[in-house]
């Protein structure tokens, strides 16, 4: 089971939490719009973001169309040293209310934390593929089915052990922790059909 640091987030997690494209998050890190924390994982350096950086990215989505990059930089610099709900710049000429972005980020964090809690990865269950706790239902499968148009009612009919919250949060987990490499082959793949039936064309009704 993967362990998580509840105060630091990968770029992929940050993209889900802030509703920004992953490319935009990486660009913000590359341009030092937000400053990452570097950690070693599995012998590699990984760029992680704290909650203050997440709030800056949440604001980036709101301010990108209204403020020039230089002014956004001033906003983010001021945000890094302030915990106030109201950000004031230029001697009070510019004020930014942070309450809505903070609430939005808090809700996104709550959803991600709930998704983490309801998912387990055990080598004894489907080879370690993430499944919903107490089931053998793969999380990425449910997210894929939902993306293809399956309704919550469809999914609960096919997988009765799923709750409404599991179905709701499956896309959140799958986006934050995408599968790596090729999809795992299923046991029935490459096996010949168990039974074949030949039917004459004249017997088919169109």
Protein described:
The chain has eight helices and six strands; from the N terminus they run H-H-E-E-H-H-E-E-H-E-E-H-H-H. With 206 residues, it is mainly alpha-helical. It folds into two domains: 11-111, Multidrug-efflux Transporter Regulator, Chain: A, Domain 2 (Orthogonal Bundle); 118-176, Orthogonal Bundle (Arc Repressor Mutant, subunit A), CATH 1.10.10. The strands form three sheets. It has a two-stranded antiparallel sheet with strand order 1-2. Strands 3-4 form a two-stranded antiparallel sheet. Helix 3 packs across helix 5 (99-117) and helix 6 packs across helix 8. The longest helix has 19 residues, at 99-117. Mean pLDDT is 82; it is low at 186-206.
Major β-sheet annotation: 2 strands, antiparallel
Tally of distinct domains: 2
CATH topology of the largest domain: Multidrug-efflux Transporter Regulator, Chain: A, Domain 2
Order of helices and strands: HHEEHHEEHEEHHH
Multimeric status of the protein:
single chain
CATH class of the largest domain: Mainly Alpha
- How are the strands of the biggest sheet laid out side by side? 1-2
Structural class of the secondary structure composition?
mainly alpha
Share in helix: 40-55%
Q: Helix tally?
A: 8
Report, as a whole number of angstroms, the end-to-end distance: 53 Å
Number of strands: 6
In CATH, the architecture of the largest domain is Orthogonal Bundle
Give start-end ranges of low-pLDDT stretches.
186-206
Overall pLDDT level: 82
What overall form do the CA principal axes indicate?
A: elongated
Q: In what range is the share of β-strand residues?
A: 5-15%
Rg of Cα set: 23 Å
